[in-house]
Specification:
Strand content: 15-25%
Distance between the termini: 41 Å
Number of strands: 7
Strand order of the largest sheet: 3-2-1-4-5-7-6
Number of helices: 10
Largest sheet: 7 strands, mixed
Order of helices and strands: HHHHEHEHEEHEHEHHE
Bound molecules: S-adenosylmethionine
Length: about 270
């Protein structure tokens, strides 16, 4: 059992078997699993697959990029990028259980030649400097207090001129979030910064902003749908991989956005110097 409170928050015993059983119960053909079959249970950020598609379009992948997904969880976005664009993708995540499940789902979807996973800390990325053309991260930084070190690590593993694609939850003027939220059951593992503070930190670390979009408004509708679905879950959905407090987390995510306690943004930046 892990001592790290972030890993403890995310770890669900037998997650692989739970997802496998849910897919079977939903009538999916396990020998011919498609990425669409998996999308309800392998994308863990506001907006799920459509948000991944939008961020990928902002990056404008050509398929030649070597990509690192920081905080890759069970691998939905990394498999999507490899499948849609053909790029080789590595995922890194702190939570050992997620890495095992990501590898299992990648085998089941026949993408092992394109995607690999490692357990590791974003603050000490297990890769050589200048290894990647794109570093990608969705909804992982809110568990990380030391943003300076996080962005320094992301910059270190990016090639010169390489791009950083972020989808983030940020602090907003409405006050601290209501807990539990999907990334934390209590404030001690939640670290939100304002978009402005985040942007300044990124620029100080050696990134140039190519694009910065507030996505709070479009994300509200997705958060409403997610909160409704959590009350009356279908066979497949984000509830499959969460505990009994998932409906409360989904409700709080919506409430935090409505009360402007959180904001969401997408950003694409470039490593300069
Ligand atoms: C809300 S999930 C998002 C997962 C994934 N990006 C997605 O969108 O499906 C946050 C993930 O960040 C990971 N994480 C949190 N802190 C981390 C750290 N310091 N290093 C690596 N991964 C971390 C967690 O284990 C979890 O898988």
């Amino acid at each position: 059992m892990t001592e790290n409170p972030v890993e403890t928050h995310y770890t669900t015993q037998d997650l692989g078997q739970t997802i496998y059983a849910a897919l079977k119960a939903a009538g999916k053909d396990i020998d011919r699993l498609s990425l669409d079959d998996l999308a309800p249970v392998d994308e863990f950020h506001g907006g799920q697959r459509p948000a991944t598609v939008r961020l990928a379009e902002l990056v404008g992948f050509t398929g030649t990029e070597r990509v690192l997904d920081v905080g890759s969880r069970v691998g939905g976005p990394s498999r999507y990028l490899a499948w849609r664009y053909g790029c080789p993708v590595s995922g890194v995540d702190l939570t050992a259980e997620f890495v095992r499940v990501a590898e299992m789902l990648t085998r089941l979807t026949g993408l092992v030649d394109k995607v690999d996973y490692r357990q590791g800390d974003a603050l000490d990325l297990p890769f050589e400097e200048q290894s990647f053309d794109v570093v990608w991260s969705q909804n992982a930084a809110m568990n990380i207090a030391d943003r300076e070190r996080l962005y320094r690590e992301m910059r270190r593993v990016l090639k010169l001129g390489g791009r950083l694609a972020l989808q983030e939850v940020a602090a907003a003027p409405g006050g601290p979030p209501h807990y539990p939220v999907p990334w934390a059951r209590e404030p001690r593992i939640s670290f939100l910064f304002t978009p402005q503070a985040t942007r300044e930190r990124l620029e100080q670390t050696g990134f140039r902003v190519l694009l910065w979009q507030d996505t709070s408004e479009p994300s509200l509708e997705a958060a409403r749908r997610r909160a409704q679905a959590a009350e009356m879950p279908a066979a497949l959905g984000q509830h499959v991989a969460h505990g009994a407090d998932w409906p409360m987390m989904a409700r709080n995510s919506l409430r935090n956005l409505e009360e402007r306690r959180t904001e969401l943004f997408n950003a694409v930046l470039q490593r300069v110097g």
